[in-house]
Amino acid sequence: xxxxxxxxxxxxxxxxxxxxxxxWEKVLSEDPDTGAYTRLARLEPGTDTSAFGVIxxxxxxxxxxxxxxxxxxxxxxxxxxxxxTCRPAGxxxxxxxxxxxxxxxxxxxxxGG
Length: 113
Hints:
The chain is mainly β. It is built from no helices and nine strands.
């Protein structure tokens, strides 16, 4: 099953917490068979994901930072609104910290590498 066909509408999905404290998600569309999705991700001010270490996925991920700022603690680089990433499976990133909070749109696909 693919993601559903959806014309412009206001998503009714609620913000829900993830396993990382201070990190919330709102899934906009999802393929329940593959786990591919499009979501909004929100990090509250002061969120630090260091306890989860460096992140490595088995899927492709793209993200666009819409608001706030996000610091990759491994790189020592702060990302700002308008910045974009395209990560192939296996690309290490994070952990992250944000003092002001952040809002991103993320796309996950090609699950399983």
